[in-house]
Amino acid sequence: MRFGFADTHAGQLHFRACGAGPDIVLLPWLPASGRMYDLVMPHLARAGFRAIAFDLAGSGRSHKNNRHWTVQQYATDVLEACGSLHTVPYTIIGGRFAASVAVEMLLASPAQVTGAVLDGVPGLAPEELRKMTTPTTGLSPRIAADGAHERFAFQVAARTLKEWDPSFELTQESLPQVYELMRDYLEPGYDAIVSAADAESKGTRPPYDVLARLGEVSQRVLVMTSDTDLLAPAYTRALERARNSRGHKFEGNHPMLTPARAGEYAQVLVQFARR
After folding, report:
1. Does domain 2-128+207-274 have CATH number 3.40.50.1820?
2. What is 34-93 written as a DSSP string?
3. Where are the chain's structural domains?
4. Would you give the end-to-end CA distance of the chain in angstroms?
5. What is the pTM of this model?
6. If the chain, 275 residues long, is cut into consecutive pieces of 10 residues, what is the mean pLDDT of each piece?
């Protein structure tokens, strides 16, 4: 594994890379960093690819000049970083918010981004979203008389893992997962964390219709979900919207959340990229 920084007009994106060959670019599920692909990337390298995992702007060790950015701006930032690393052409992998970023990359640069794996499409209807709570619901990093701020980051990390995998339970064995995600979550710093938490509580995030944008994509798309994915209702909708798509559903929880299944996850990516 190699680590470095790729230049963009906004700053620098931190990345990790492994292997040599055609490129597979991986974008993490926020608030995680590219670290979440550490166990997957060696499998991609052994299959003959160069795997590159970025920390998105505002997360991990990447620049923090992303206040009030649109999805399109995140996409432009990653495209510029890929260009500085000469990753042309390549397959893009993105989950959750990063799936929207991947869609915008497909639309903005069809010659360079030849296909995408959308690992959980955030295309839920408003009524479905209203039934869901965010990891920061009822929590704040601001000082509270009861000392809740002292537990804020830990609770957000544990709630995020529970959102990704409803079967997640906090045990001594799962505690390292919480600390790894908490490390990623704290990296942006206090101001960015407060701003994001406030935006979630007030519902002020800019609207983005990923399904409508997906309908404009002409490249190959693989849409993925799992039995326990809270975004599963959008899975069929995404397949219907994308003109050149196919789907893959993992049994049980998502393999990205189970270290022993990293090879299974990587194999699906390899099969898609080789096409």
Report:
1. yes
2. GGGGTTTHHHHHHTT-EEEEEPPTTSTTS----TT--HHHHHHHHHHHHHHTT--SEEEE
3. 2-128+207-274, 130-202
4. 26
5. 0.94
6. 97 97 96 96 97 96 91 97 92 96 97 95 86 86 92 96 91 94 93 83 73 95 94 93 93 89 96 92
